[in-house]
Amino acid sequence: MSKIIASGAIRGAHSIFAKTEAKLARAKESFGADHAVELPNTGYYLPVIYGLTGEKVEKLSDMDRVLDIARDMLPEVPSEKLYLPYLGTTLDAGIATLLSEECHEALNYLDNDPPPVTELWLGAADDVIMRAKGVEFVDGSAPGFAAVVGAAPDSATAVRLAREMQEKMLYVFMAGSTDGNSFGKQLHDEGIQLGWDTRLVPFGEEVYSQIYSIGFATRAAMAFGGVQPGDYERILAYNKSRVFAFVLALGEVTDEWYATAAGAISYGFPTIATSDIPQILPTGVCTYEHVVSNIACEELVQKAIEVRGLKIKVTELPIPVSYGPAFEGERVRKEDTYAEAGGQRSTAFEFVRTLDAAEITDGKVEVVGPELDEIEEGARFPLGVVVDVAGRKMQSDFEPVIERQFHHLMNFAEGVLHMGQRDLIWLRISKAAKDKGFRLHHLGDILHAKLLDEFDAIVDKVQVTIYTDQAKVDEMRAIAEESYAARDARMAELTDDNADVFYSCSLCQSFAPSHICVVTPERLGLCGAYNWLDAKASNELNPTGPNQPIKKGMCVSTVTGEWEGVNEFIREKSGGAVERMTCYSLMDNPMTSCGCFMAIIALMPMCNGVMIVNREFAGMTPSGMKFSTLAGMVGGGVQAPGFMGIGRGYIASRKFMAAEGGLSRVVWMPKELKEAMRSSLEPRMAEMGDPNFLDKICDETIAETEDAVLEFLTTVGHPALIMDPMF
Ligand code: SF4
Fold first, then answer.
1. 387, 349 in Cβ contact below 8 A?
2. Which of 227, 349, 369, 530 could make an S-S bridge to 221, C-beta 3.0–4.6 Å?
3. How far is CA 526 from the centre of its chain?
4. Atom of ligand 1 nearest to the CA of 509
5. How confident is the model over 615-637, as pLDDT tens digits?
6. Is any atom of ligand 1 closer than 6 Å to the C-beta of 530?
7. For residue 629, what pLDDT is reported?
8. What is the mean pLDDT of residues 136-152?
9. What does the alpha-carbon distance between residue 338 and residue 393 come to, in Å, rounded to a whole number?
10. 137 CA from centroid of ligand 1 (Å)
11. How far apart are alpha carbons 250 and 150 in whole angstroms?
12. pLDDT value for 644
């Protein structure tokens, strides 16, 4: 262990601790010791402190206990003359730093000194973001994150580094500055879109704000891994093995940076520095080296990936703009748009069809009609994207699965915005992309390369035709519509009763080891990303992968949806943690929940029904808990009768809570969710003989407590009130 690093980290820890202690004293003087303190919209209090110590910081005086712990962990600064092995004490200093930094940053929310949220800086990530983005870490669409501290030598280098990390699908969390400049500011000045949607997340100007990166990782362990607050050993071990993060230190490393990096090392996150600081090469706390220094900016990202042991698969595409998931959330504003198609203003559709291999010339991309540079700037042009595929294992059932990938595959291109599917698409191409040489045929090049890459087990040949001639667009659209109708008829036929097999999804086991989603034709995965057809296609693509067929076996109960084959599968794959599981019951051995669910069903005993809250709803629910608090109870791969995470699509299923009476049990939903579900719930309400049932479901604009919900239900004659007791 380097004495220079150890001394710097310990000095830095003392400095941050002292500043936090003084800031807390000032806050108590101004607001009083009982004044509430919190980070925005989280059920995890101050998450690093909660995760590592189990302490719930709710008011200023609660911070005293935390700073007592930090004080006890602070080692003496190493003496000039005596050399000791410093690793343990340095790591202690790192943890003391993290505890202090989190208090410091939470106090900023109270005294606004400095303001935690500005035009540039985003401040803490709330639980809605953490869960939405955490899913990407679960399913591998985000391999990890880089915590960037300081500033690049110049803005052009900052942009190049950011683009490189975006293309490698990494999240970039920024905090800390060098000589008043910072990576976030450099990108902002260059007009780069920052935010969670582009994976370039500027947390704050001071290095202390990197605590939000650690808070994100700590919550992931609790939300997805089922680690209990206070179980610091498992929090740290979980992060070392499952959250692939690293620190990039740009510029001169100060004592406070050393201290923060020491905290990150405890989580298994190594530091890669551009400056010539001592290295810590032995492995142990991190998977490989702890500190690697003197790395040129050109090699920085590659070196970090190597040191953290990340595996990143990038397909090179023959297109003139950057490409990767980080561009999926990029907006193409009207004033930046060169031309657009669809969005209800011009005919536009996309369509996959299966042909014989002999009918397809692999790699052929044709534009029928004007190319982008032949279309007038500002025009709304007609568009048809027809993708012909062939493959020995290709089935028509897979066409919609492949077609749904178009959205992200096109959106990943910098300067391309794509929304919707089938004949309800909207595409914009930016002026900047057009100026870089991007043309419509590049959309075809993307689809050809990525479909062959992602669906290599079922697709052997791909050709793409892009129509922009109105008459041809209309002609091809009529063919596509026939196919859409045939698919809809096929989907309507698919039911749990006539399917021989269900499919598992074990993707979330990397985060929640005892959780398995059982995906049936009438119940999709709880993240909403996998329906039965997706899981079936995924199994064809990767027969030993996360989606395995489950033979249903003998039926134990058609009412609760319990089968012997499913039970056996779940028992084995959960390592014995779950013995039995039903597909249609909330109360009787319900499906476990990982942490990726789109919504939560929760029992409302007084109302003899349930409420459903979606994760976008940040307000209080009549259960007395916000989504984030409920999520903490439900997640982690445990069965919690009365509470369950679900995909939103399941609410419109005939099998929704069939054991407890189905949709009629729903007594409260956020208004936005009610409206979003209205059209898909119409067939179910018609079957109930109550086409206006949705209006009998209470929402936050009507009532926020269970008593008030009950009063509303009585007024409207809600059916739950006269149904059998739920338990
Ligand atoms: S289907 Fe279930 S296990 Fe699979 S990614 Fe979604 S939530 Fe996770």
1. no
2. 227
3. 13
4. 3
5. 889 899 999 998 888 888 888 88
6. yes
7. 84
8. 86
9. 40
10. 12
11. 5
12. 95
CA distances from 278 to 247, 306, 439 (A): 16, 19, 49
Backbone angles phi, psi at 711, to 5 degrees: -60, -45
Q: Is the pLDDT of residue 55 over 80?
A: yes
Give the DSSP per-residue string, 11-44. HHHHHHHHHHHHHHHHHHHHH-TT-B---TT-SS
Distance 526 CA to ligand 1 centre (A): 6
Q: How far is the CA of 515 from the centre of ligand 1 (A)?
A: 9
Q: CA 445, CA 429: separation in Å to the nearest integer?
A: 16
Q: What are the pLDDT digits (tens) for 655-698?
A: 999 999 999 999 999 999 999 999 999 999 999 999 999 999 99
The answer to whether the beta carbons of residues 134 and 299 sit under 8 Å apart is no
Residue for token pair 């679900």: 646
Q: Which amino acid is at 305?
A: I
Residue 329: CB atoms within 10 A of its CB come to 15
| Cα of 354 from ligand 1 centre, angstroms | 28
Ligand 1 pocket, 192 CB below 6 A? no
CA distance 666 to 693: 10
Cβ neighbours, 10 Å, residue 509: 20
Nearest 5°: the CA angle 35, 41, 43 is 85
- The larger pLDDT score, comparing residue 430 to residue 344, is at 430
Q: Output the pLDDT for position 687.
A: 94
Query: What's the rounded Cα separation, in Å, for the pair 600 and 597?
Result: 7
Averaged confidence pLDDT in the chain: 91
To the nearest whole percent, how much of the chain has pLDDT over 90? Answer: 71
How many Cα atoms are found within 13 Å in the side-chain-facing hemisphere of 251? Answer: 21
Note the maximum CA span of the chain.
85
> Which residue has a Cα nearest atom 4 of ligand 1?
505
Mean pLDDT of 222-230: 85
Q: Which residues pair with 250 in a beta bridge?
A: 150
Contact 363, 325 (CB under 8 A): no
- Tell the burial category of 472 from Cβ atoms under 10 Å away from its Cβ (0-12, 13-18, 19+): middle
Please, are residues 325 and 364 in contact by the beta-carbon 8 Å criterion? no
Q: Could you tell me the distance, in angstroms and rounded to a whole number, from the CA of residue 505 to the centre of ligand 1?
A: 6
CA of 462 to the centre of ligand 1 (A): 29
- Residue 266 structure tokens: 């405890």
Q: Check whether 141 has a pLDDT greater than 80.
A: no
Given a contact cutoff of 8 angstroms between Cβ atoms, the answer to whether 683 and 689 are in contact is no
Is 525 a pocket residue for ligand 1 (Cβ < 6 Å)? Answer: yes
> Is residue 475 within 8 Å of 465, Cβ to Cβ?
no
Binding site membership of 508 for ligand 1 (Cβ less than 6 Å): yes
Residue 258 vs residues 18, 42, 88, 213: alpha-carbon distances, Å: 16, 28, 15, 16
Question: What is the structure's pLDDT at 595?
Answer: 79
Query: Hey, what are 68's tokens?
Result: 């007592």
The letter for the amino acid at 356 is: D
Tokens for 341, please give them: 């198609």
Check if 527 has its Cβ closer than 6 Å to any atom of ligand 1. Answer: yes
Q: Does ligand 1 have an atom closer than 6 angstroms to the CB of 526?
A: yes
Name the residue among 629, 468, 480, 659 with its Cα closest to residue 562: 659
Contact 640, 630 (CB under 8 A): no
